[in-house]
Amino acid sequence: MKKKKKKKISLVGIIMGSxxxxxxxxxxxxxxxxxxxxxxxxxxxxxxxPRRLHDYLKIAKKNGVEIIIAGAGGAAHLAGVxxxxxxxxxxxxxxxxxxxxxxxxxxxxxxxxxxxxxxxxIGKAGSINAALLAVxxxxxxxxxxxxKLINYRNSFEKKVPKTPY
Length: 165
Ligand code: RP5
Prior knowledge:
By secondary structure, this protein is α/β, with parallel strands linked by helices. It has one domain: Rossmann fold, CATH 3.40.50. The protein is 45% helix and 15% strand. It is built from six helices and five strands; from the N terminus they run βαβαβαβαβαα. It has a five-stranded parallel sheet, with helices on both faces. It is globular, with a radius of gyration of 17 Å. The relative contact order is 0.16. It binds 5-O-phosphono-beta-D-ribofuranose (RP5).
């Protein structure tokens, strides 16, 4: 009898408003890969593909996704709309835009009370930090991830010189 293939569970779901966001969101995926965190990556826009967002969130929760990371630029409502649909924690990455990402930052961070979005910095730093924050959240539940995070922090400290010259 053929063995049934074990379904790979994604712990993190990365979504972004446009394919053009990938150059920033790739840093998030690459950082999760360093920690061997299974994740899926989708282009889903709150205004261009609202049905896709609803469908994805339904499936994501059923499939074991524990954290959603959403990146969007301009009038960046993707993270907020996502947080309004799901009870999973949502981390938002403001993508650099024509206004240098300030519009994206304010649209993502300024959620009225009731529906929170954990907003990171604009662009690459936010993309990397969203992944690291997801790692940190997951580390409270998964000891393997915690060990990796501790190692990462230790190696990070070693990389910083003690003097500036
Ligand atoms: C947003 O509009 C996307 O997240 C992207 O950052 C921005 C521009 O999208 P494109 O015109 O490049 O598809 O919805």
